[in-house]
Structure formats: structure tokens, C-alpha cells
Write a structure and sequence with these properties.
Number of helices: 19
CATH architecture of the largest domain: 3-Layer(aba) Sandwich
CATH class of the largest domain: Alpha Beta
Strand content: 5-15%
């Protein structure tokens, strides 16, 4: 894999040399420009993955670099470095398209965190563009956001199965984005110009389900004053998405199985068979295998819908995607709101990333809607966060010391604290595992966080978050000690 190319523009030789050494040690390929004029030449000459530029330079300044970069390479993130870190300057830069800014003096980790997030966003854009080009699509990829290993596997599966007519069962916890995935499959399929018809099986009363799906003839039942076509007919030649298919009753399971097997159905009160050409996608947050063993779901129907299975990970298992999702939601919400720009500082992103999000992506979206609607200033502060996030942050800060994971490196299998409530005992066991895994991972890669992250298949920020949470320092992982 090629090293990411970072264009660094600064008129201070000492800072430029510091950036060079820092980026090289982190596994990046820096290109240096000692003035704004040299930076413009470099932008004309090649397309970097990220631009890091000083804001205040003699002659050509950071704002001009930003404008030229947006003209030549619209999707390349630009990070501004400034010693004049006033809110007005930062907001002005972000309004003009800067991805983020860091204020002098900054630590190495502060810059690398911003850089890692910028690169993750760029990888996501490039991947989505590649998928659209490969599948002949010009529209956006149905809102799928994430660069974590689990989401890359989901995207790859979508790319491979979308052009087929195979049935797909999408599973995952509530709020993980099952309908988003179904829409992405449809948009990337050969039926993309045909209807996509979603049905929430849990929202339709069972006594109305047959009429809703298959339609009814005039006079079929009391109140049926006219013939009505059903959702299956509306989806003919397109994609039919059954959300929460585990809610289908036994009678409807039989009739829907016939539709899948024979492509035939009858309207309620009708005598003639009708046909439908459908691609069927289904989703559930229930355990269908258990439902089969309990006699609540037909095994033959299960095998019909489960030709390909896509398991969506909960948001807590891909925390590195939280900043990308939050930024995506904020941009989308701000584009349709009446307020101006809203900057989310790195500190707030770290709070969002550290939360477990039991409601998954839907809960994060709700949080972003709250901030866009209620944050009073141009930048989000800790006090602007919803109450549940402030309470979670407060609980984290006052955890009893005796319940924390041991400070030294752990080894062996941790004992389970049977005297504690289930969730707390589970958390302590997981902390022990995380500390042991990360310690040995870093030791095996000489303390190089970037190499360790690549080997583990997670992003650098996730490694740093785990180190902070389990109180691991690089001194502990130095193999020379």
C-alpha cells in the first residue's frame, strides 16, 4: 500500500523539519514547501492526500492555499496551522472549506489525530467514488459512512452482491442502518432505475398485512369500496425491502414464501394469480434461528431470504467511525438549516467517540440534530451536549479506583468478578483484555502506533483511545526495557 502523501507548507524551517520527521515516523510521505508560493507550485504539480499549511505567511498565505487547493483538488482535506487561534479566524477558514485547524503550540498527537481523521474522510470519499464508478452510478452512496474494517467489509459485500438478484438478509441491532444498506444495494443494482419499496413489518397490524402487501379486490371485506393494488405490485420489477421480517405472522410467512418461490400471489378477495418480478431484501434485529427453534418462523422462508447475509456492527464496535458520521450528519443538517456553520472541536469529537451509543447510528444522528438546533454559538462546547452525554462523561470521571483495571501489564485469563452486577463485571473483564492485547501489540511493533494500528486492522485513533482508557504509556511497550 502506498504511503499517504502530505503536503506541508510553512515558512518556519524548524517547524517544517519537525513536521517532516513526525510524519515520516508515523508512516506518511511528506512533501515540504518553505513558502506559500512553493505550496502553490506543489499543488499544481501533484494531488496530495492532505494539505497542512500555516495560516499566516508572508506573500501567499494559508487562505490563498486553501482557495487554490479547493479549485484544483476539491476533495482534498486542508488543515490550517495558526498561532492566531481566534474563533473568528477558525470559523472563517472552515466556512471557506478548511477541514480543521490546529493552534500553535500543538502536540504531536493533536496534529496526528486531526490528520488521521482527515485521511479517513478522504479514504471514504475515494472508496465511495470508486464504487460508484465501477457500478456506473453518479449519485451518492446512500449515506453509508465509515472507514473501519467492519464497514469496509460491508461495503465490499455490497459491491459484490448488488449487481446480482440474490436475496439478502441484513442483520444488526436497532439503529445500525439496515435500511441504508438496503437502499445502497438497490442503488448499485441493475434495478436502480426501478422502484424501491420498503415495508416495516412491525408497523402494520397483522390483520391488515395481506391487504397491504398483496392488495385487495372491491368488496373483499367491509370497507373495501374499491380495488387497491398492494405494495408488491408497486415494487414490480424493482426491489422489495421487508424491514423487521421477524414480525411476519405464520399465515403471511406461508403466502410470502410462495411469492419468493413462484413469483405469484393473489389479491385479497381475488381468484386469479398475479405475478411479480422482485428482488427481495430483508432485515431484522431478532435472532431468526432462535425463532425457528421456537416455531415462530419458518425455516424454509429463512433459507429463501438468507442467501447472502450482511451483519452490521454496532457503533460501539467501530468508534473510529463516530467522528466521520458526526461530521457527515452535521454537514447534511446544516445544509438544510437556517443557522450558519457549527464547528465541532476535537475535544467534543473525542467525547462522542468515547460514548457507547446504545441506540447506534440513529442515536448519534439524534444527537447531531440536537446540537444543530440548540447549540447557541458557532462552536460546540461541553455544556452544549445533550444531558445523557454529560452524565456519561461525569460517570466516567468518577469511576471508583478499586474497580479499574490494574495499572501494570496484565497476563493470563482475568478472573470474573461474580460479586459485581453483570455489566460492570463484563466491563472490567474487557478492560483486562484490551490492556493485555494493546500492550503486546505495541511491544511487537516497537511502540509504533501507526504500525500497530495497521496490524490490528483499526485506525490510529482507536489505538490511542484504548491506550488512554487502559492507561498504557509507550514507555511500558518499549521492548528495550
Amino acid at each position: 500500500m502506498n504511503q499517504p502523501q502530505i503536503l506541508c507548507i510553512d515558512d518556519e524551517p524548524a517547524l517544517l523539519d519537525t513536521l517532516r520527521r513526525l510524519l515520516q515516523s508515523a508512516g506518511y510521505e511528506p512533501t515540504l514547501a518553505a513558502s506559500g508560493e512553493e505550496g502553490l507550485v506543489a499543488l499544481d504539480r501533484f494531488r496530495p492526500d492532505v494539505v497542512i499549511t500555516d495560516l499566516m505567511m508572508p506573500g501567499v498565505g494559508g487562505m490563498e492555499i486553501l482557495a487554490r487547493s479547493k479549485d484544483l483538488h476539491p476533495n482534498v482535506p486542508v488543515v490550517l496551522i495558526t498561532a492566531y487561534a481566534t474563533l473568528e479566524t477558525a470559523i472563517q477558514a472552515i466556512k471557506k472549506g478548511a477541514w480543521d485547524y490546529v493552534a500553535k503550540p500543538f502536540t504531536n498527537d493533536q496534529l496526528l489525530i486531526v490528520l488521521d481523521r482527515a485521511l479517513a474522510t478522504q479514504r471514504l470519499r475515494d472508496e465511495n467514488q470508486r464504487l460508484r464508478q465501477q457500478l456506473g452510478q453518479n449519485d451518492e452512496s446512500a449515506g453509508i459512512v465509515g472507514t473501519s474494517a467492519p464497514m469496509m467489509r460491508v461495503l465490499d459485500m455490497i459491491r459484490r452482491i448488488a449487481p446480482t438478484d440474490l436475496g439478502v438478509l441484513i442483520t444488526g441491532e436497532s439503529g445500525t442502518g439496515k435500511e441504508v444498506v438496503a437502499r445502497a444495494i438497490h442503488r448499485m443494482s441493475l434495478r436502480h432505475d426501478k422502484p424501491f419499496v420498503p415495508v416495516d413489518c412491525g408497523a402494520i397490524p397483522q390483520n391488515l398485512m395481506e391487504s397491504e402487501l398483496f392488495g385487495h379486490e372491491k368488496g373483499a371485506f367491509t370497507g373495501a369500496g374499491a380495488t387497491r393494488r398492494g405494495l408488491v405490485e408497486a415494487a414490480d420489477s424493482g426491489t422489495f425491502f421487508l424491514d423487521e421480517i421477524g414480525e411476519l405472522g405464520p399465515a403471511m410467512q406461508v403466502k410470502f414464501l410462495r411469492l419468493l418461490q413462484e413469483g405469484e400471489y393473489r389479491r385479497v378477495g381475488g381468484a386469479s394469480l398475479r405475478t411479480a418480478d422482485l428482488r427481495v431484501l430483508a432485515a431484522t434485529n431478532r435472532d431468526l434461528e432462535q425463532a425457528i427453534s421456537e416455531g415462530r418462523f419458518r425455516e424454509d422462508l429463512y433459507h429463501r431470504i438468507n442467501i447472502v447475509r450482511i451483519q452490521l456492527p454496532p457503533l460501539r464496535d467501530r468508534p473510529g467511525d463516530v467522528p466521520l458520521l458526526a461530521k457527515h450528519f452535521m454537514e447534511r443538517l446544516l445544509a438544510t438549516s437556517r443557522r450558519g456553520q457549527l464547528h465541532v472541536p476535537t475535544q467534543i469529537m473525542e467525547i462522542l467517540e468515547s460514548y457507547s451509543w446504545p441506540g447506534n447510528v440513529r442515536e448519534l444522528l439524534n444527537c447531531c440534530q440536537y446540537l444543530v438546533a440548540l447549540a447557541p454559538g458557532p462552536s460546540v462546547g461541553v455544556d452544549d451536549l445533550p444531558a445523557f452525554l454529560q452524565m456519561a462523561r461525569a460517570r466516567c470521571h468518577r469511576e471508583p479506583a478499586q474497580e479499574s483495571a490494574p495499572a501494570g501489564r496484565s497476563s493470563g485469563t482475568p478472573s470474573i468478578r461474580h460479586d459485581l452486577p453483570y455489566k460492570r463485571a463484563k466491563r472490567l473483564w474487557l478492560e483486562h483484555f484490551e490492556r493485555d492485547y494493546i500492550s503486546h501489540l505495541l511491544e511487537g511493533h516497537g511502540g509504533n502506533i501507526s504500525k500497530a494500528a495497521r496490524a490490528a486492522g483499526i485506525d490510529r485513533k482507536s489505538i490511542q483511545r484504548l491506550m488512554k482508557r487502559t492507561r498504557i504509556s509507550l514507555d511500558e511497550t518499549d521492548p528495550r526495557q
